[in-house]
Amino acid sequence: MIPEFNLMPIRQGDTYVLPLSFWEDECETTAMDVTTDVFKLMAKNSAGVTQFTWDNAAFVVGEPNERTVTLSAATTADYTAGEYKYDLQVTTATGTYTWMQGYIQVQSQITS
């Protein structure tokens, strides 16, 4: 079973940056090379309707074990406020796996 990992909330109209790093071990001593892996995150509401999807292009490679998602303020302004269930699927050389799942909240913009 994959444990739940809730992501940082997204505030409508703000730039959102989500850095991710991947390790072979719990002590984070051996980096996992994810440079050729294909990432996809999908978030759905409680009725199962897709609210947003981040395809592989959104996951920018940094170090071999790092990917960073950066969303512009214009992009997050279009997101609907609410709490959504998400999962992150990664396709590696050996198959497609769900590496993360949990909740992500989109918060209403107050200042415009």
Which secondary structure elements does this structure contain, and how are they paired or packed?
Elements: E1 10-11, E2 16-21, E3 38-44, E4 50-54, E5 59-61, E6 66-71, H1 73-77, E7 82-92, E8 95-107
Parallel strand pairs: 1-8
Antiparallel strand pairs: 2-6, 3-4, 3-7, 5-6, 7-8
Could you explain how this protein is built, in words?
- The chain has 112 residues and is mostly beta strands.
- Helix content is 4%, strand content 47%.
- A five-stranded mixed β-sheet has the order 1-8-7-3-4, with no helix packed on it.
Strand order of the largest sheet: 1-8-7-3-4
**What's the end-to-end separation, in Å?**
41 Å
Mean pLDDT figure: 95
Rounded radius of gyration (Å): 15 Å
- Strand proportion, as a percent range, falls in over 45%
How many runs of DSSP E, i.e. beta strands? 8
SS content category? mainly beta
Task: Tell me the overall shape.
Answer: globular
Uncertain parts: none
Q: How helix-rich are the residues, as a percent range? A: under 10%
How many helical stretches? 1
Keywords, please?
1 helix, 112 residues, mainly beta, 3-stranded antiparallel sheet
